[in-house]
Amino acid sequence: MSVVTVQLGQCGNQVGQELFDVICSDAEEGQKKTYSAGSFERFFHQNAHGDLVARAVLIDMEPKVINQSMTKAAKSGKWRYGEASHFSQSQGSGNNWANGYCVHGPRNRDVVEELVRREVECCDRLAGLMAMMSVAGGTGSGVGTYITQCLRDLHPKSFILNHLTWPYRTGEVIVQNYNSVLTLAHLYQLSDAILVHENDTVHKICSQLLNIKQISFSDVNKVIAHQLGSVLQPAFTADSHGVYSRNPLGELVSALACHPEYKLLSVCTIPQMPSSSIAYSTFSWPGLLKHMRQMLISNSKMEEGIDWQMRPPSGSERTRSLTGFGFNRSLANLLILRGKDVYCAETGGFEDPDLYTSWLSSEESFTLWKSPVLFNKYEKSVTLVSNSQALLRPLDNMVRSAWNMFASRAYVHQYTKFGISEEDFLDSFTSLEQVISSYNQLC
Length: 443
Ligand SMILES: Nc1nc2c(ncn2[C@@H]2O[C@H](COP(=O)(O)OP(=O)(O)OP(=O)(O)O)[C@@H](O)[C@H]2O)c(=O)[nH]1
Ligand SMILES: [Mg+2]
Fold this sequence. Notes:
Blueprint: E1 2-8, H1 9-29, H2 33-43, E2 44-46, E3 52-54, E4 56-60, H3 64-76, E5 79-80, E6 86-88, H4 97-121, E7 126-134, H5 139-154, E8 159-166, H6 176-190, E9 193-198, H7 199-209, H8 217-232, H9 248-256, E10 264-270, H10 275-278, H11 285-298, H12 315-320, E11 330-339, H13 362-365, E12 366-371, E13 380-388, H14 392-407, H15 413-416, H16 422-440
Parallel strand pairs: 1-4, 1-7, 3-5, 4-6, 7-8, 8-9, 9-10, 11-12
Antiparallel strand pairs: 2-3, 10-13, 11-13
Helix pairs in contact: 1-2, 1-3, 1-5, 1-8, 4-5, 5-6, 6-14, 6-16, 7-8, 14-16
Bound molecules: guanosine-5'-triphosphate and magnesium ion.
The site of guanosine-5'-triphosphate (GTP) has 27 residues, from α1, α5 and α8.
């Protein structure tokens, strides 16, 4: 089955290009033919010349980034984007969600839908759609939300996953929190699951784990792509009986997003290190899994600085500490192990009921995928996709900052002039407050 990706705005197009690059290199190096074939079928088709062509549609309201992404892909010599799978206009959405959602989205709807339709028709079987974008600008967030709505109408039964990049907390866009709030509140109604990368977290990984001095978006995007690739590449599920699972989006959604009130997924991968060190490092499954479990509990995104004192409250402690003392409670976790001796890995620590909300059984809360194929040159790698309280604090900060600005009606006229009313803002605040409250009360 295949996934059609829609890349929107600068960030969506740049992250998407890195993702296809990682997937293609990894699949090419895959030591198993079925793994490579499964990956190619998922993400690429072949054109008349035998080139691998990404199953992707590129959308931006200005041409520069799309041109760059297409050139980079073609230069890789391994894969390319379809010659006619992109659409751009001459001017961006000016970091304004309302401009994207109310103006550019509706104006260009037919063209975009036609591009997606053609890409979907190239798939023998559609696994689902993945839309990639930032939440802080105007095109990715505004047009991205509008297009997600169109896709939901056109494909009511398909899985739709949104991959969102959250802005640096001290970001460069003054209205980034408005754009983020409007995007998230709307996507919550439309999307099956929302997979989030925070720029601040990924930046830290680049500086502290990869030792990069001058960090560029390209560095950040490579880390995001590595983590996403390790989620989306073929793997065996518990009941796939030695056959690679067919539908990565469907299985991801059913493993993690079983309740409409809880759709926010965070992801982390270990180990991550400079590529020059990979060949000289060895890791054990028990060590990696112990670290990952503690990272989950203490909500750290890196092995560095894990709080080893943190543990899940159990028994009577549990009833007393609704929101815990920094303990990160999960609704559901998907653990993905890739590499050598993967069948020997012992993952019982992730089935501990104390990690989870009490209203789901640990069979429903925990899912394990495995693949014996080395991922992206790492001998062993562990990825955790988690529907937990991990994004509660950044979400709360985002909503609070937007609310503080909204209280003085700062910049609101920039939105009302395109047709977004104060009431629309209030509705978005209300629905995200509800999401925050639900995650807060996870017990
Ligand atoms: N990780 C990552 N973040 C990016 C990248 N490009 C932009 N961003 C972030 O995305 C936000 C800005 O959104 P953009 O994607 O540039 O905006 P856009 O969707 O093109 O919208 P307009 O330019 O307003 O039309 C900021 O928070 C940036 O930090 C990228 O390549 N990688
Ligand atoms: Mg732009």
